[in-house]
Amino acid sequence: MKKIAGLLLSTFLIAGVAQANPNTYIVKQGDTLYEIARQHSASVEQIKQWNGLATDQIRIGQPLALAQGATLANAGQTAVGSNRVSSGQAKATIQADRLNVREKGDLSGQVIGSFSRGVVVDVLQRGPQWSLVESGGLKGYVSNDFLQAGAGTSVTTVSRSGNPFESRLQNVVRPLVGTPYKLGGTSPAGFDCSGFTAHVMGQFGVKLPRISEDQFHVGVAVDRANLQPGDLLFFDSYGSGKITHVGIYVGNNRIAHAASRSVSIDDATWYFNNYRYYGAKRVLR
C-alpha cells in the first residue's frame, strides 16, 4: 500500500512540475506523438527535433519539451546538480534511453548514431550545452543534459571485436551514414533497410534478396553471443508479427542500418530491448 501511495505521489509531483512549466509535457497512457503535437499546435517533426528523438516512440512518464530550448531538468529527465558533467572529468554515463549523437553541437546537426542508457563515454570536449564524446567507435556531440559525470556501477559495457574484417566493413558503411531513408531505395541516393544491407553486402560479392524477410532465409544462423561484424540482425519494428527490419552488426555492440530518417550507426541494445528480435544470419564467410 505504501508503494502504491509513493508511486501516486511521484506521479502527482512530476505532473505538477510539467503543469508549472507550459513548455514541457509528461507522456500519459494512450498518448501518441501525433496527438501531443496536435494538442500543442506543433508538428511531430518539431517535437522530435526539440527532444532529440530519432523515432516516434515515446513512453509513459517521459518528459517532452514543447518548445525550442525548453529545459526538462525539473521533470526528472536530466542529470542534476553535482552529477552534471564538469571540467576535468574524462568519463560520463548516458542518462537517456536512446540519446542521439550529432555531427555538431546543435539540434540542427545531422544525427549519426545513438547511445543507450548506461553506456559510458569518453568526454573529449565540453561546452556549455553540448559535449564531444566517444564510445565503441562512435564519436559525436550529445546534449550535456543527458550526461552524468563518471562511470556508474551498473553500466552497459561495449564489447570489442578483434575481427580484422571490421575495419573493412567500416570503410564501406561510414561514407553511407546520413544517406536519407527512401522506401524501396537501393542506392546511395536513398535506402530502405533491406536495400542498405543488400548494397553493403554487394560490395563484398554477396547478392542478397530484395526484402528483409527473404534475406532472413540466406546464410547461417548465429547466436547473439557470437555476433561478428557483417552479421545481419533481423527485427519486427512494427509489432506486426513478422520481420520488418534488418541491419548489419558492425562490432562494438553497434548496428548499421537505414533507420526511419537516414542511415545511422546505433547502439544495438536499444533495438534488442524494444523490438522483437528474430535472430542473426552470417552471409560472409
Automatic annotation (TrEMBL):
<dbReference type="InterPro" id="IPR052062">
    <property type="entry name" value="Murein_DD/LD_carboxypeptidase"/>
</dbReference>
<dbReference type="GO" id="GO:0006508">
    <property type="term" value="P:proteolysis"/>
</dbReference>
<keyword id="KW-0788">Thiol protease</keyword>
<keyword id="KW-0677">Repeat</keyword>
<dbReference type="InterPro" id="IPR038765">
    <property type="entry name" value="Papain-like_cys_pep_sf"/>
</dbReference>
<dbReference type="InterPro" id="IPR036779">
    <property type="entry name" value="LysM_dom_sf"/>
</dbReference>
<keyword id="KW-0378">Hydrolase</keyword>
<dbReference type="GO" id="GO:0008234">
    <property type="term" value="F:cysteine-type peptidase activity"/>
</dbReference>
<feature type="signal peptide">
    <location>
        <begin position="1"/>
        <end position="20"/>
    </location>
</feature>
<keyword id="KW-0645">Protease</keyword>
<protein>
    <recommendedName>
        <fullName>Probable endopeptidase p60</fullName>
    </recommendedName>
</protein>
<feature type="domain" description="SH3b">
    <location>
        <begin position="89"/>
        <end position="151"/>
    </location>
</feature>
<dbReference type="InterPro" id="IPR000064">
    <property type="entry name" value="NLP_P60_dom"/>
</dbReference>
<comment type="function">
    <text>This major extracellular protein may be involved in the invasion of non-professional phagocytic cells by Listeria.</text>
</comment>
<keyword id="KW-0732">Signal</keyword>
<dbReference type="InterPro" id="IPR003646">
    <property type="entry name" value="SH3-like_bac-type"/>
</dbReference>
<dbReference type="Pfam" id="PF00877">
    <property type="entry name" value="NLPC_P60"/>
</dbReference>
<dbReference type="Pfam" id="PF01476">
    <property type="entry name" value="LysM"/>
</dbReference>
<feature type="domain" description="NlpC/P60">
    <location>
        <begin position="163"/>
        <end position="284"/>
    </location>
</feature>
<comment type="similarity">
    <text>Belongs to the peptidase C40 family.</text>
</comment>
<feature type="domain" description="LysM">
    <location>
        <begin position="23"/>
        <end position="66"/>
    </location>
</feature>
<dbReference type="InterPro" id="IPR018392">
    <property type="entry name" value="LysM"/>
</dbReference>
<dbReference type="Pfam" id="PF08239">
    <property type="entry name" value="SH3_3"/>
</dbReference>
